[in-house]
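Q: Got a minute? One more chain.
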Amino acid sequence: MLIRQIIRAGLAAALLTATFAAASSGAGVDDARVTLPVPTTATVTAAQLGADSVVAVVTHGRIEQRNATGLARSLEVITPDGARHPVYSVDLQEGPADWFPGDFFLADWRPELHTALLRVSRGPDGDTLVSYDVTTGATHQVDAPRRGAFFALDPDGSGVLMTTYATEQRPGRVATVDWDGTKTWLPARSDGPSITSPDGRTLVTTVGPQWWVTDLTTRTSGDVDARWNCVPHRWLDADSVVATCSTVRWSQLRLVDLDGTSSPLGVRHSEKTRAVGPPVFDDGDVRVVQGRSWFESYGGCGGGFLSRQTTAGKVRLVRIPGSSGALTLVAARGDRLVIARQKDDCDSTRTRATLTLLDPVGRHEQLLTRLGRDEAWREVIAATEVRAWIW
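A: Always. Here it is, folded:
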């Protein structure tokens, strides 16, 4: 969420940690640029990116194992019938110091542009930001500035948006970076997740309980008090964001408006609710089907699970017969939920990753896509939704 990753994969965290460490130290960096593997590319039609389609990044092979072979990463469009359409794929080979040059994750997706922003690793040389239009194959790229923490597409197509790392003295800064590398600083500040509006006019960055709202047309910014630390996940409408708000005592999914006001979408999870229900520490999303709210909740195993909440404030784990593994609540389709599953951190089995349609009331699950035995989801998002920058 936007932005936690949709599947809280340790692989993505490892790549980020290594990249950021190199960016911070610069020690031992060779001036010669790493030669990246050439990706295999393809396109889909705009019609294949409809409301029931999914955009995903898939890991091929056991990348966590030393000297593994057959490794690859692919950006894919999965159509409503479950068919997989790889549009950007790269074969990977482990380099020195556990680097995988050419490896990437999905930093941002703009539905109206049909374009993904991929953060491609150059190993110790840093990262390259690659935009890829999955309908035309058009690409742009720019080297990620060393100070850059997180990146997204500038909705006007001119380049990328960037936040820098915070320091002990001050929060990070916010900038635009054109494809030629020209950087323009904005008044806003940031030390956490960010989200760009569906119409491309507004950028929201966060500094603790403070939200900075930037008009990307006029390049002006103002700050509002969201009252609590609120992590944005996705837009619900033009002026409201689904966000997880928290204090040291509790966490709650809320609908936060751009003026800083908010309303609850779920209960406040605390020691009290965990004592009488499942160990939910926070909720990452909610979808309403069949007149009920269904939550993507998180406990202690690094993966989500499905829960519901009663009018009395009780939390209930929703068990699905025959299913296991970490769950991501991708979208709603009619009276069913679209969910992605794969092995979580506490699973000792080799659970096959799947994309399914779930009737959460009748507990019936329909398979859409099953990945290969050595494949796993890295990100899974709805093709028409605008989510927080992925990190």
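A: The first strand starts at residue 40 and ends at 41.
Q: Perfect, thanks.
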